[in-house]
Amino acid sequence: GCSATINVPVGVTMDLSKTTKQYAFDVKGYLEVDSEGEMVASTGTGNGSRVFSVNNGGELKIDSGKFTGNYCVNANGGSTEINGGEFSSVEPTLAFFNSNTEVPTEVVINGGEFTASDNGVIMGNGSTVSGEPCKLKITGGVYNCNIKSDGYIACSIYCPNYDEIEIDGATFNVTDGCCICSRAGKVTIKNS
C-alpha cells in the first residue's frame, strides 16, 4: 500500500466536515499524523462525521494533533497506534471492530487525551461479529467521559464482545458512570 504523512501547522484548522464520505481519511495503506494544528470533522452522524477509518490491513499512527468528530478513529481490521494528541467526540473517540475483515484489529494507545461528551470514550462493537478478537492495549492517556442524553451511561471503555483489552497505566475521569464496562472478552488492568 501507499504511505503518507500529515502535518497541520500551528494555528491552522483543517475542516473535514465537507467530505462526501463518512470518513475524511479512509486508511488502507500507512498514514502517520504528527500535527500541531487541528482537524475537525462534523459532530453529526452523516458524511464528514468521522476523522479516520482504518480498514483491512491499514496502518494509522498518530503522534500529536487535535481531532474533533462524532468518532475520531474507527478501527476495523488493521493497526492503530496513538502516542499523543487531543481527541474530542460526541460518541467514542475510538471505536474498535472486527467485522467483515480477515485482518485482526489491533490498537495501542500510549498517550493522549480522549474526551467523549455523550457515550463511551473507547468502544467495541455491540453487534455479533465474526473473526479474530480485537486487541486493545493502553499504556497511558487521560480518558474523560460525560453524558448529556437520557438512557445512556458514561463509560471510559466498553468491551461488549470477546475482545482482549490490557490497561497498564491510564487516568479515567467519568461523570455519572463507570470506568470500564465489560460484557464479554478479557480485560486486564494494572497500575491505573
Explain how this protein is built.
With 192 residues, the chain is mainly beta. The protein contains no helices and 18 strands. It has an 18-stranded parallel β-sheet that branches. It starts with a strand and ends with a strand.
| Uncertain spans | none
Q: Provide the β-strand percentage band.
A: over 45%
State the distance separating the first and last CA atoms. Answer: 37 Å
The biggest sheet amounts to: 18 strands, parallel
Radius of gyration, Cα only, in angstroms?
15 Å
How confident is the prediction overall: mean pLDDT?
Answer: 83
Shape: globular
Helical segment count: 0
Based on secondary structure, the structural category is: mainly beta
Q: Summarize the helix and strand pattern as letters.
A: EEEEEEEEEEEEEEEEEE
**Count of individual beta strands:** 18
Q: How much helix is in the residues?
A: under 10%
Helices and strands in order, then pairings?
Elements: E1 3-6, E2 13-15, E3 23-27, E4 30-40, E5 50-69, E6 71-82, E7 86-89, E8 94-97, E9 105-109, E10 113-116, E11 122-124, E12 135-138, E13 142-145, E14 154-159, E15 164-168, E16 171-174, E17 177-182, E18 186-190
Parallel strand pairs: 1-4, 2-4, 3-5, 4-5, 5-6, 5-7, 6-8, 6-9, 7-10, 8-11, 9-12, 10-13, 11-14, 12-15, 13-16, 14-17, 15-18
